[in-house]
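Hallway conversation turned thread

IA: we were arguing at lunch whether anyone had actually written out Dps family protein end to end. Turns out nobody had. So, for the record, here is the sequence (172 residues) and right after it the structure tokens. Reply here if something looks off.
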Amino acid sequence: MDQQLTDTQRTPPSHEALPVQTGLPEDARQDLAQGLARVLADTYTLLGKTHGFHWNVTGRQFHSLHEMFQEQYEDLTGAVDDLAERIRALGHFAPGSLSQFLKLTEIEDEHGVPAPQEMLSQLVRDNETVTRTCREVVDIAQEAGDTVTEDLMNQRMAYHEKAAWMLRASIG
């Protein structure tokens, strides 16, 4: 006869079999993972938008924008992996579906093909959005004494600030 296990009888998931004991308490790791999940969602949404703009840009600046957008989406591809792996290192699962990302992100999804100048304007705003989300996580990391997450956020902020500057300069 099959008998359902109660929550206390189930074998804990593998991530709980050996608790994370890196010097950060669980509540701090939870707060950090939640903040990083928002950065991950913003980054993944920005990645998709930038890649779409790379495919669809037209006009006088086609070549330079096509190349710049490619450089940016390639960086973002590596960043999403770094962010998700940091969440896992903190002992939590990273969001991994588009529906989860769209619930967590502050970046507006683009369903059309805007003119090149509008693409640039949107990407400036979106990179600045990611920067602000990273700043919020820096505050959480500083409070928790998590210099690893703080360092990752500082690297991401530096990247997004530079990307926003280059995009803004391309608007002319």
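OS: looked through it. The helical segments are 14-17, 26-56, 62-89, 98-104, 116-144, 147-171.
IA: good, adding that to the notes. Residues 1-15 have pLDDT under 50 and may be disordered.
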